[in-house]
Amino acid sequence: MSVTPTLAISLESPASHIRRGHTSEPLDEEVAAVGRIEAIKTVLRVLLRTTGLRLAVVSHVTAESWTCCAVLDEMNFGLEPGDTLEIATTFCNNVRSSAAPLRITHASADPRFTNHPAPRLYGVESYIAVPVYRRNGSFFGVLCAVDAKPAELSEDLLEIFRHLADLVGYQLEHEEELGLRDAQLLGAREAAQLREQLIGIVSHDLRSPLNAISLSAATLMRRTDLDDRARRGLTRILDSADRANRLILDLLDFTQVRMGKALPMQRKPMDLHMLAQQVVDEMQLAAPERPLVLHCEGDGRGDWDGDRIAQVLTNLLTNALKYSPADADIRIETRGEEEAVLLRVSNGGAPIPAHLLPTLFEPLTRGTQSGSEQRSIGLGLFIVDQIVRAHCGTVEVHSTVEAGTTFGVCLPRHV
Question: How do residues 298-343 score in pLDDT, each as one tens digit?
Fold first, then answer.
């Protein structure tokens, strides 16, 4: 008749000393990172088969805590990923403090561990473990196998443990890097979505009060009893409201594009020379001190959305006025060619820094020129690019110290 060996267990169940789960966010990340390692269950199964023990664990170990990250339990110990033990009650704490492997064949009979809490609290008699390090050399925790029965554990087993611990450490750092990149991508995506939602809300909500301001100022301008000072003040109000409305239109277009929708277009026959003259006249009224020189040549007729092309030219002129010397001419050219009509806006002044040119038409970016002046890319050029693309055209920029800055738009006559 076989005799079941007496186990060195406490009167209490080992499970009574396990704290379920934890609230520390960094530890949650460690548990998740180990859990994402596809081979982790295979590693733990290899440990049990090679040692004959019945509980294998990957634990995250610090001077203050012990946390189960992955477990294969064939002796009903009761551990689950995320559970914690009092660090001072574990053999893993010895591995951490010594930074060396540990092999125990019969803990309660071993003079080194007769008074250790592990045999008394958890009934652990046999234990074999090695430290787990990340690839950068930092200590992560312990890879161990344990059992409530004494067991013969040869020192050769430690070599297997070391190789498997290296595998876990390598995969762990890989998963942590992936997790960090995923978190960064998620954070960037959420920020972009929030930004676009806010832009959409603000741009819609701003239109009503601006329209009320414009209507009120326009009504007052019709009065005949206004002196010159009051009329100039109302003119500034109307100009400011007009600029704000143009910005709102850009914001609405930006939101629509970022939501994956096409910009609405209503093509009809028109003459680009006539449209350019109209836009330049309007801009000249808003900036009477700045010379705007328009030159038209060739056939300017084609099928385009006139309001959208006016938006393109307005944005380019606004950009040129803002980033050129106060006494510099702004040159506008429209020239008809065989299959397309070209639109160019040129200004003098400091060139656009070369490192900004590749991202000049991206939205919500900002760069700097030499000195303290800031060049705000904003949404204007992004909207220009989107409208031109919608017309199957192209837009490009050339900027040098000698020639200044020129934005060139090519619009096919018919699509």
Answer: 999 999 999 899 999 999 998 899 889 988 889 999 999 999 999 9
How does DSSP classify residue 304?
Answer: E
Q: What angle do CA 156, 161, 166 make, to 5 degrees?
A: 135
- The alpha-helical segments, DSSP class H, found in 301-413 are 306-322, 380-390
Tell me the three state secondary structure of residue 12.
coil
Give one DSSP letter per residue of 192-248, joined into a string. HHHHHHHHHHHHHHHHHHHHHHHHHHHHHHT-SS--HHHHHHHHHHHHHHHHHHHHH
Question: In degrees rounded to 5, what are phi and psi of residue 342?
Answer: -100, 140
- The pLDDT of residue 371 is above 50: no
Which pairs with CB-CB distance under 8 Å and at least 24 residues apart come from 255-261? Answer: 255/196, 255/199, 255/200, 255/203, 257/386, 258/192, 258/196, 258/363, 259/196
Q: In this predicted structure, what is the pLDDT of residue 342?
A: 97
Give the CA dihedral 280, 282, 288, 292, nearest 10 degrees. Answer: 0
Closest to 79 measured CA to CA, from 51, 59, 103: 59
Rounded Cα–Cα distance for residues 129 and 161 (Å): 7
CA–CA distance, 305 with 383 (Å, rounded to integer): 14
Q: How far, in Å, CA of 412 to CA of 400, rounded? A: 27
Decide: 321 and 330 in contact? Cβ < 8 Å: yes
